[in-house]
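Hi V.,

You were right to ask for the full record rather than a summary. Here it is.
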Amino acid sequence: MDEMPDLREFIAKYGERGYYMIKAVLDASLAGGKAKLGDFDLKGVKERLKSMGLDYNPVPLLYALERTYGVIRTTYRSTTQHWWEITDRRKLQEILSEFEGSRETEDYELRLLRLQFYSLDPDRVLAQLRSSRRPRQLVARMAFTTLPMIVEFLKKAKELYPEELAKEIDLAEQILELAERAITRGALNSKAYLITEAEVQDNALGGGDREPL
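Predicted structure:
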């Protein structure tokens, strides 16, 4: 069985939203006063987020905690309810403590760079480049929007935080490498097509001028 990713990756990707999601999960799991089908439910998490002054859909982050990081597990689901149990409470508590400590000491520019990078949804960009049937056209659309921002991130990250942002730098370089391959491959295909067309025309012209034997 594959080992689950570290929760630090979850915090790195979602930042303070990830922190407050974990806090809401833990707080909701400690609430009493009603029959329980698990440690916490979706309604309880929404209530905790609202009490913190936050208003966003928690479902994508809950699914990530369950499917990607394996720290919660669905125990009951219907059209009106969704309950989970916490499978590793200690991990959740430890990452909260770690994040709360790092927020006071971590460089603000480092946090901003990380947030800017993940706001580009790099995992989706990489997946699109890998699966697209027309990668050249995809890169042409990204060349003046997403890719310049990825390059700007790479320059700053490599100069200022090569160790702290090593994982993000690697992901950004994979995106650029796939984009370069798509453009190069497309250029070669276009050149081969032009050469073939020229040969066909030459042969046609040559055949028309040739006198019969």
